[in-house]
């Protein structure tokens, strides 16, 4: 187990290094000059050359790369060219919003999707199963931006129940802002006694959370259903029924446990992707998360911000998959000695 963990950690280091190398080369070779971006339209050659010297862009590419790797190892990702703030601060502030949204969505999906998938498999080809399968296909087929805007039209435009976008009301930001502790407003607000801020944060997260939940629920439900159908055909499950064990024990203690590894794989990949890939949902709801920040940084040639955020996302994605790998051994003890 220890050897496997070391191998995975070394692989993570190699993958992160490869991702950073690709992003670094693309940002230097294909992107426009950051100096021209900072100086505005039509800067003189002297001004551009001076700015390139200050940014270290006149040095050989290999020297720039080694310098960047050294800064990363020291935890220095530089300052954003647009905001002039440290990239780590920018990433840290936005990661809390993305983490809160995607983690809540993933938890709700697991709590709802797995029981629905089990029920659908148990009642295969029944009305319940047909409804679940139809809803799952619809959930996968509907584009995320269409679903997000439809929910906005319904709950904000027609019913007026929930806010349109943002993370909290403007009045909260100006009058009684939530003091950051963990970066998660739904935790920080109660910890600081800011219940008005908590209710505002809860109302604002409802629509993007519902959007992500609907999108993810279809995948988890279908995977659970398909795996359960296969497991329910096994001999030991039929033997358990023959011995008269309670159905709930057979379904959830024996059959579901046998499906957890593929479910964990899908959940790990989906969750890791969401941490940096929920760009569309964040954009529609103006959610101040990390995905939209990365896209904006790349579009505006803010290469320190884009490189720093990419490095952070790659590391987070690989860490999630490492945790999933370790959970395999928890779910299936045979893998501990494999």
TrEMBL record:
Q: Which residues cross the membrane?
A: 9-31, 101-122, 134-159, 198-218, 260-285, 305-331
Q: Which InterPro entries match?
A: BPD_transp_1_N (IPR045621), MetI-like (IPR000515), MetI-like_sf (IPR035906)
Cite the PANTHER family for this sequence: DIPEPTIDE TRANSPORT SYSTEM PERMEASE PROTEIN DPPB-RELATED
| One example GO MF annotation | dipeptide transmembrane transporter activity
Family affiliation? Belongs to the binding-protein-dependent transport system permease family.
**What is the name of this protein?**
ABC transporter permease
**How does this protein sit in the membrane?**
Multi-pass membrane protein
Q: Which organism is it from?
A: Mesorhizobium ciceri
Gene3D superfamilies recorded = MetI-like (1.10.3720.10)
Question: What are the record keywords, sorted?
Answer: Cell membrane, Membrane, Transmembrane, Transmembrane helix, Transport
Q: Which cellular component, as a GO term, is one annotated location? A: plasma membrane
């Amino acid at each position: 187990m220890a050897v496997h963990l070391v191998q995975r950690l070394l692989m993570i280091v190699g993958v992160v290094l490869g991702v950073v190398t690709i992003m670094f080369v693309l940002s230097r070779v294909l992107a426009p000059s950051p100096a021209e971006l900072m100086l505005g339209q039509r800067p003189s050659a002297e001004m551009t050359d001076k700015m390139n010297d200050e940014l270290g862009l006149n040095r050989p590419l290999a020297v720039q790369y080694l310098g960047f790797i050294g800064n990363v190892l020291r935890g220095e990702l530089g300052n954003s060219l647009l905001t002039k703030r440290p990239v780590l601060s920018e990433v840290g502030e936005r990661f809390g919003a993305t983490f809160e949204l995607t983690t809540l969505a993933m938890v709700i999906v697991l709590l709802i999707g797995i029981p629905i998938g089990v029920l659908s498999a148990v009642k295969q080809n029944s009305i319940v199963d047909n409804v679940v399968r139809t809803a799952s296909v619809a959930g996968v087929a509907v584009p995320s931006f269409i679903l997000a805007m439809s929910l906005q039209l319904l709950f904000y435009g027609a019913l007026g129940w929930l806010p349109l976008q943002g993370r909290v009301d403007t009045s909260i930001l100006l009058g009684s802002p939530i003091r950051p502790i963990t970066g998660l407003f739904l935790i920080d607000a109660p910890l600081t006694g800011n219940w008005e801020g908590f209710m505002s944060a809860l109302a604002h997260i409802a629509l993007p959370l519902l959007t992500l939940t609907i999108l993810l629920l279809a995948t988890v439900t279908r995977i659970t259903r398909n795996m359960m159908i296969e497991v329910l055909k096994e001999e030991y499950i039929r033997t358990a029924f023959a011995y008269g064990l309670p159905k709930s024990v057979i379904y959830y203690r024996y059959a579901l446990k046998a499906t957890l590894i593929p479910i964990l794989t899908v959940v790990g990949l989906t969750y890791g992707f969401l941490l940096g890939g929920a760009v569309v949902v964040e954009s529609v709801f103006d959610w101040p998360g990390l995905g939209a920040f990365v896209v904006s940084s790349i579009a505006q040639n803010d290469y320190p911000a884009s490189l720093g955020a990419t490095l952070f996302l790659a590391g987070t994605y690989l860490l999630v998959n490492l945790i999933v790998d370790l959970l395999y051994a928890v779910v299936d003890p045979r893998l501990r000695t494999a």
